[in-house]
Design a protein that fits this description.
The complex is a heterodimer of chains A (484) and B (492). With 484 residues, chain A is of the alpha+beta class. Chain A has 3 domains: 295 residues, no CATH class; 113 residues, no CATH class; 59 residues, Arc Repressor Mutant, subunit A, CATH 1.10.10.410. Chain A is built from 15 helices and 16 strands. In chain A, strands 1, 2, 6, 7, 10, 11, 12, 13 and 14 form a 9-stranded mixed sheet that branches. Chain A has a 3-stranded antiparallel sheet with strand order 5-4-15, with no helix packed on it. The longest helix of chain A has 20 residues. Chain B is α/β, with parallel strands linked by helices. Chain B has a single domain, classed as Amidase signature (AS) enzymes, CATH 3.90.1300.10. Chain B is globular and about 65 Å long. Chains A and B meet through loops of A and α10 and α11 of B.
């Protein structure tokens, strides 16, 4: 698969690096005990520490540290046993201290990696540069009053993990896959809920273009893109914009840009010339964060099975296709559901049912695995009925629809509706004989070489038996009789 | 009667209260009267007489009930850098106009826990920046001391100038101060009082308006070494709200005061004999050395080779931290707001009007030394120097138990005399080393200068050995027999 895009002067390659801000799932802020619930009334979740009142001091929330370390372990990254909190100094109405406590030179997590599940079933490794902890700022609202800005400090001090990738991504599609996979890993770990619409995850997208084999071009950073769809759109627009400039004889200036989701374009926010000098220095209110190696090992031992490992195990243990396994593990619940259905059964049949009719039904009803009208046990029982020839695969679809509608057990539906499969060869023979007798002309055609008519006879027999005839038996007997 | 009670320090007042010679309300009333009579000294920014009398009445009830705390009924002044719940807290800055905290600093909370009474909030240099107390938005504090035969007003030192003046003029039994580069010790020296800066981490910084976080500590300012020991015992202790506070038990400092220095080695740093050190200061240093020897100590000459770099290192680190710590005063959430046509202009107007000249100077220095391109040349080198200075002391303390030096290079001087900021900064030359190294250090009055002004001697100790430092101070105090008091001219 080629990611190159064509310009007037030939093919171009897009180079993308992502900085994802992931809100740590925790009940309290990074340096204060204030709550972090989403959607609270403005300024109701603010302590005097978050509001930067005189004399207030930060105290690190141990649970947030634990969440960051778990995330680092989930990204197969180096955990730095000593890290340092720095102050990043700048003025903004929603930054109460006039600085943000962040990690700069010595982050808590070093280099790691993330595997992308490519559409062709292969995987591709993307480097993680670092993960560091920092406080979020508050929110300025400019649309509440004609000439005043309102400030909501509910988010001020909320713990964020900034996860920085290497510039390893080469297309908008890969950027989208990266975000999807990162969100999956964070959700498996329970360290970030990944709700981009609630602002729990947002991405700064660094984009540059180059001719293949050339050094990296000058990059532009697109700030705070808040959905995977917008990341894709932003990359596509920005790459095309840069190519057009270069091909028109211009040069790209390093700058920070915004993505206008309404118009689907990126816009300049500030140039490098007036880029901020943040005057980082170690926060004197906080000692270096020193972790105990045994504690980190303990967290590692307690990690849940992560999507890559789960995918590999599903392929190995259940013999399903890597692509199917990849789809199933994209979230934890479908994978668990699959295992509950497949355990002790025909696992490929289970996979094809889940990925086919079952997912289609969820989509149609707008439901998820957790509030599905069909339980794993019920679906398993349906598959059992197929496996022991009580019903055919076709009848099973009818039974499944009835299960969705009524919530009844599949066996009860089969009995009620009299859908039990006819395996009695005598009855099938009778049905076949009647069909052949009614269609003497077609029998002759078949016998003169028109093999394709076999399907027609099968259809007629199934129709005559209301679909209840065992298809294998129908095949065998029909073949024998047609051969005469 | 009232004037007699105000002469009491912690130990005597506590004894008098315990013996029912007077009540806490009577004691407090005496100080309230003294404060009213001394407004010309400008030692207090905010007086809290009603609160003090209420607290004193409760103290009397507890004393009667036999549940008195270690500081029960003792009227104390608090530097206006400590946040006090429900009481105006200004850091002597215009920018904190009307700021009344909803919370209490840990140090003052400890004092109220132990029964102390709040007389009011003491004047200081704005945001604790200064060595003369001339930088207060509320006007300079006047030193109760005057030169012999001269009525010129002198500075009390700074930044804890109001605390020092209040203790010296008997406007409280004792006061709290903070010391970032000498702000307890130098004013103690200028006013004939005792002050100790404990080891960094010994007292919580929670609720103290921050100036230079990695350097500053709260400490007592008192009329005697024993009082300092008692007050420090209440102020100190681990606080989970301050990550740099140290989880160590607090010893009984008063119990450590024997004045016996036998078996102790006292180091005399040769580098402190700086060019131009006044012969008078040198002579008192010599005398202090002799007193320590007389108390049984062995005197050892030591070297602190990097001490000469302490002042420049300090005046890089402290402004750097200050520039960041003071960024929160932006007119958005509390204190002064001066409108502007947009957010940036509002910031500029508020900060331009709200901060005094010295504070603005240090913010600019701090912003400069941290900025891209200058960081390594200034901040990184200053931090390296800081480690070297701390290393000097570590090596010295392999040999000696304490270091003896002058507190300040001069006695108190007249207001406006040191208009050049560099000349003012030189006043910290002997004190900043202890802040850079985080060590406990105190100033004890040694005697009077030829002009009749107090001069102090400084004792620097090992980390968390406040008890040892206080005991050396106690030996010096006994030998010096310093009992002079300023003439109470301010009562008119």
């Amino acid at each position: 698969m080629s990611n190159l895009i064509q310009g007037a002067t030939g093919a171009w390659e897009i180079v993308i690096g992502l900085e994802v801000h992931a809100q740590v799932s925790s009940n309290a802020k990074l340096f204060s005990g204030a709550a972090t619930a989403f959607g609270a009334e403005p300024n109701t979740q603010v302590s005097t520490v978050d509001a930067g009142f005189p004399g207030m001091l930060p105290v690190i929330n141990r649970y947030c540290v634990e969440q960051a370390v778990k995330t680092g372990l989930g990204l197969k990254a180096k955990i730095n046993l000593t890290s340092v909190f720095d102050r990043k100094n700048y003025f903004y109405a929603d930054l109460p201290n006039g600085y943000q406590i962040s990690q700069y030179k010595d982050p808590i997590v070093g280099e790691g990696r993330l595997l992308l599940d490519m559409p062709d079933g292969s995987t591709r490794e993307i480097g993680i540069t670092r993960l560091h902890l920092e406080q979020d700022a508050g929110k300025s609202m400019h649309d509440q009053h004609p000439n005043l800005t309102f400030v909501d400090l509910n988010r001020a001090g909320v713990a964020l993990m900034e996860i920085v990738s290497e510039p390893d991504l080469r297309s908008a599609e890969e950027a989208a896959l990266y975000l999807t996979k990162l969100r999956t890993v964070l959700r498996y770990l329970g360290t970030c809920d990944g709700n981009m619409e609630e602002g729990s995850m947002r991405a700064d997208v660094n984009v540059s273009v180059r001719k293949p084999g050339q050094p990296f071009g000058t990059r532009c950073e697109i700030k705070n893109v808040n959905s995977i769809r917008f990341v894709r759109a932003a990359v596509e627009y920005e790459a095309r914009r840069q190519i057009d400039i270069i091909e028109d004889g211009g040069v790209i200036h390093q700058e920070t840009r915004l993505f206008d989701s309404g118009k689907g374009v990126t816009r300049s926010m500030r140039s490098k010339e007036d880029a901020h000098d943040y005057r980082y220095f170690p926060d004197p209110d906080l000692l270096p964060l020193v972790l105990d190696a045994a504690w980190v090992e303990g967290l590692k031992a307690g990690l849940p099975e992560l999507p890559d490992e789960k995918k590999a195990r599903l392929v190995a243990d259940y013999g399903i296709k890597p692509y199917d396994a990849g789809v199933l593990v994209a979230e934890r619940e479908p994978a668990d559901f699959f295992e509950a259905v497949a355990r002790g059964r025909d696992s490929r049949l289970a996979a094809s049912w889940i990925m086919g009719d079952y997912f289609a039904m969820l989509n149609r009803l707008g439901k998820s695995v957790t509030d599905s009208p069909v339980s794993a046990q019920a679906l398993g029982e349906l598959i059992d009925l197929i496996a022991d020839d009580t019903i055919s695969g076709r009848i099973a679809k009818e039974v499944f629809e009835a299960m969705v509608e009524t919530g009844k057990a599949p066996a009860a539906i089969v009995e009620e509706k009299g859908l039990r499969q006819v395996t009695d060869t005598g009855a099938i023979e009778t049905a076949i004989d009647e069909v052949l007798a009614r269609n003497q002309d077609k029998v002759a055609e078949y016998r003169s070489g028109k093999d394709k008519l076999f399907g027609f006879f099968v259809g007629q027999v199934m129709k005559a038996t209301q679909g209840k005839a065992n298809p294998a038996a129908v095949n065998d007997i029909l073949k024998a009789k047609l051969q005469g | 009667m009232a004037s007699d009670l105000t002469k009491l320090g912690i130990a005597e007042a506590r004894a008098g209260l315990a013996a029912r010679e007077f009540s806490a309300v009577e004691l407090t009333t005496a100080f309230i009267g003294a404060i009213e009579a001394a407004r010309g000294l400008n030692a207090y920014i905010t007086e809290t007489p009603d609160l003090a009398l209420e607290q004193a009445a409760r103290s009397d009830a507890r004393i009667a009930a036999g549940t008195a705390g270690p500081l029960e009924g003792l009227p104390i002044g608090v530097k206006d850098l400590f946040c006090t719940k429900g009481v105006l807290t200004t850091a002597a800055s215009h920018i904190l106009d009307g700021f009344t905290p909803t919370y209490e600093s840990t140090v003052t909370a400890n004092l109220w826990r132990d029964g102390a009474v709040l007389l009011g909030k003491l004047n200081m240099d704005e945001f604790a920046m200064g060595g003369s107390n001339e930088n207060s938005y509320y006007g300079p504090v006047v030193n109760p001391w005057r030169r012999d035969g001269d009525s010129a007003a002198l500075v009390p030192g700074g930044s804890s100038g109001g605390s020092a003046a209040a203790v010296a003029a008997d406007l409280c039994v004792a006061a709290t101060g903070t010391d970032t580069g000498g702000s307890i010790r130098q004013p103690a020296s200028f006013t004939g009082t005792v002050g100790i800066k404990p080891t960094y981490g010994r007292c919580s910084r929670f609720g103290i308006v921050a100036f230079a976080s990695s350097l500053e500590q709260a400490g007592p300012m008192t009329k005697s070494v024993r009082d300092a020991a008692i007050l420090l015992g209440s102020m100190a202790g681990h606080d989970p709200h301050d990550s740099t506070s140290v989880p160590l038990p607090v010893p009984d400092y008063a119990a450590a005061l024997t004045g016996d220095l036998r078996g102790r080695k006292i180091g005399i740093p040769k580098e402190y004999r700086i060019d131009g050190l006044s012969p008078e200061i040198a002579a008192w240093w010599e005398r202090g050395t002799a007193w320590a020897r007389d108390a049984g100590a062995e005197i050892v000459e030591i070297s602190l080779p990097h001490a000469q770099y302490a002042l420049p290192a300090y005046y890089i680190v402290a402004p750097a931290e200050a520039s960041s710590n003071l960024a929160r005063y932006d007119g958005v959430r509390f204190g002064l707001r001066v409108p502007g046509k947009d957010l940036t202009e509002m910031y500029e107007n508020t900060r331009g009007e709200g901060f005094g000249k010295e504070v603005r100077r240090r913010i600019l220095i701090g912003t400069y030394v941290l900025s891209a391109g200058y960081y390594d040349a200034y901040y990184t080198r200053a931090q390296k120097l800081r480690r070297l200075i701390a290393g000097d002391f570590e090596r010295a303390f392999e040999t000696v138990d304490a270091v003896l030096a002058p507190t300040a290079p001069s006695a108190a001087y007249a207001g406006g005399e040191k208009a050049d900021p560099i000349a003012m900064y030189l006043g910290d030359v002997f004190t900043v080393t202890a802040n850079l190294a985080g060590l406990p250090a105190m100033s004890v009055p040694a005697g009077l200068s030829s002009e009749g002004l107090p001069l102090g001697l400084q004792v620097i100790g090992r980390p968390f050995d406040e008890a040892g430092v206080l005991n050396v101070g106690y030996a010096l105090e006994r030998a010096a027999g310093f009992s002079a008091k300023p003439a109470a001219w301010w009562r008119g």
